[in-house]
Specification:
alpha+beta, globular, 30% helix, 7-stranded antiparallel beta sheet, 141 residues
Length: 141
């Protein structure tokens, strides 16, 4: 049996420093993901809230923050129960922009957890689309 790991990458037309701001700063995160109360920083609690509901949606801890190259945090949502997963973001400069990679590991396993994995997979796709639109509108402006 293999571990359930979600891996995704996208190319963005922005320097890694700008992409980093979209991964860590509340006003940018609110545009494409969920809004934390403060900038994500190493060793701090991670709490992200629904932009319209204000409900706590995601929680964990920022384990590593090496701007503008690597961000790692734990990730739990209500459907995961007590399970704690890990999200790793890697930013790589490329000609014309940045390659952003996401690795989401430590997800619940088994047939019963497969619907959760499908939902997270779909959610990351949707959030990446919003990130691309939000960031490119800012950069192209």
């Amino acid at each position: 049996m293999t571990d359930a790991v979600l891996k995704k990458s996208i190319f963005l037309r922005a320097e890694p420093e700008t992409v980093w701001a979209y991964l860590t700063e509340p006003e940018h995160l609110a545009e494409w993901f969920h809004k934390p109360e403060r900038t994500l920083a190493e060793g701090q609690k991670l709490e992200m809230f629904g932009t319209t509901s204000g409900d706590l949606l995601i929680w964990g801890e920022v384990r590593v923050a090496r701007p503008p190259k690597y961000l790692e945090h734990t990730f739990t949502v209500k459907p995961m129960g007590d399970a704690v997963s890990v999200v790793k973001w890697t930013l790589e400069p490329v000609l014309g922009g940045t390659r952003l990679e996401l690795v989401h590991e430590g997800l619940p396993q088994g047939v019963a957890a497969f619907d959760l994995i499908l939902a997270l997979d779909k959610g990351w796709d949707e959030h990446f689309g919003k990130l691309r639109v939000s960031l490119h509108e800012t950069v192209d402006a």
